[in-house]
Design a protein that fits this description.
26% of the residues lie in helices and 30% in strands. It is built from nine helices and 23 strands. Strands 1, 5, 6, 7, 8, 12, 13, 15 and 17 form a nine-stranded mixed beta sheet that branches. Strands 18-19-20-22 form a four-stranded mixed beta sheet, covered by helices on one side. It has a two-stranded antiparallel sheet with strand order 2-3. The longest helix is centred in the C-terminal third of the chain and has 17 residues.
Length: 414
């Protein structure tokens, strides 16, 4: 059946949250003081509903930030301001490193979300949805390598040497995009998904930047000749980094998406449904800081990791409740999300086992609970397994997220 581009209702909203030059940036192990702007930072909103069920809306919020642990509070406020059920609101952080800490925004960050959401809901118009799935080789890598039984991260090597070593595991090179086209064929919005850390800004870490998702936005506007709103859903990339600068990675992805738009597969008309499952997992309860293990690869940062260890010990809970969410679009395309930094092999397996024609697996959504390696990753060791505020969940968390994802995908595909 020919697509009429009126099967769905789509609305978008955006607020600029770029800070003033001079604010500290999250950076890496140590923060940087910003001295310029490479690309601007945004809060974006996209409202989605089936034309046949316009009252059943889903609201996506994305923000250019490292993480957003206060997603539950934001969803409560958004629910009150929009009238939508909390379960129909998803808040995703891009994991960009060249930005302020989310705390530095105070109330203004949630206010920006509310304003963007209001605009999205007020601007909903008829569109058709189209899916793209392509490979993007040569711009990312599994950042963990084993040398003499020790797990190293590639960023610890000189930039020119980072692709010389055999990775400890495979990684996902697929880019997926969900494009909304108006009846006249123009592109209103693009949701895109790629499994790669947004920490590839290049050789100037003091520039404020949305990282490669910001360059995707600029490249698509250039190729289309007009502005289209882009929302980034980070794929399972807990152990994946880029091999090129943010600009190169973003331009490549933007080119692939733009080239693929004419041949994108139509998403058939159908309902937009929401599913959710809460899973419980525990803290790893590591008793002692393993300074010798850290010193093997991070000799000059032992005290930094000791501080992170102590923070995790002081913040321990008996149980952590993780929300796995599903957006089912016409039984054809699924968006499955989790609130952690998931190792890429788990995300790849979720997509492989999904019964949907297309499955976007996104992390850093509706919470921020640190790294979730594979069980193999835990045996290999390395930064992502050092117990601390960045990695504290029990080793079975990845398996539980996979199982919950598969249950939701199979239940809603029926």
């Amino acid at each position: 059946m020919e697509q009429k581009n009126n099967e769905y209702l789509i609305g978008t909203g955006v607020r600029d949250i770029t800070p003033a030059i001079g604010v500290p940036l999250v950076g890496g192990v140590a923060p940087y003081i910003s001295d310029g702007i490479a690309t601007r930072l945004y809060v974006k909103a996209l409202a989605l509903a089936s034309s046949e069920e316009p009252e059943e809306k889903v609201l996506f919020i994305t923000l250019d930030n490292l993480k957003y642990p206060e997603a539950d509070k934001a969803r409560d406020r958004l629910s009150k301001s929009t009238g939508l059920e909390r379960s129909r609101i998803l808040v995703t952080a891009s994991h960009a490193h060249s930005c302020p800490w989310y705390e530095d925004y105070g109330e203004s960050l949630v206010e920006a979300m509310e304003q963007a959401a209001a605009d999205a809901l007020a601007s909903m118009e008829c569109c058709g949805l189209y899916m793209i799935r392509k490979d993007a080789p040569g711009i990312s890598q599994n950042r963990r390598v084993l040398l003499d039984g020790v797990c190293w991260n590639t960023w610890l090597f000189p930039r020119e040497d980072r692709e010389k070593y055999t990775p400890a595991a495979e990684h996902d090179i697929s880019v997926q995009a969900l494009a909304a086209k108006r009846p006249d064929g123009s592109v209103k919005a693009v949701i895109f998904n790629f499994a790669c850390h947004a920490c590839n800004s290049g050789l100037t870490p003091t520039l404020i930047s949305a990282d490669y998702p910001g360059y995707v936005r600029l490249k698509l506007d250039e190729r289309l000749g007009y502005h289209t709103e882009t929302l980034f859903f980070p794929g399972a990339c807990g152990d994946v980094n880029g091999t090129k600068t943010a600009e190169v990675v973003g331009n490549r992805l933007g080119e692939i998406i733009a080239d693929s738009l004419p041949e994108a597969e139509p998403v058939p008309a159908g309902p937009v449904r929401i599913g959710s499952e809460i899973i419980g997992t525990e803290d790893r309860q590591v008793a002692d800081f393993k300074s010798e293990e850290v010193a093997k690869t991070w000799e000059d940062q032992v005290e930094h990791f000791r501080q992170g260890f102590e923070e995790a010990v002081n913040a321990r809970k008996e149980q952590y409740l993780l929300e796995v969410d599903l957006v089912d679009i016409a039984g054809h395309t699924a968006i499955i999300t989790c609130p952690v930094e998931l190792f890429t092999e788990i995300g790849m397996e979720i997509k492989k086992e999904s019964p949907f024609a297309y499955t976007i697996a996104a992390e850093q959504t509706n919470g921020a609970y640190g790294y979730v390696p594979t069980k193999k990753g835990f045996t290999q060791g390395g930064y992502e397994t050092f117990y601390g505020e960045h990695s504290f969940l029990k080793e079975d968390a990845g398996e539980k997220i996979f199982e919950a994802s598969e249950r939701l995908l199979n239940e809603y595909k029926k």
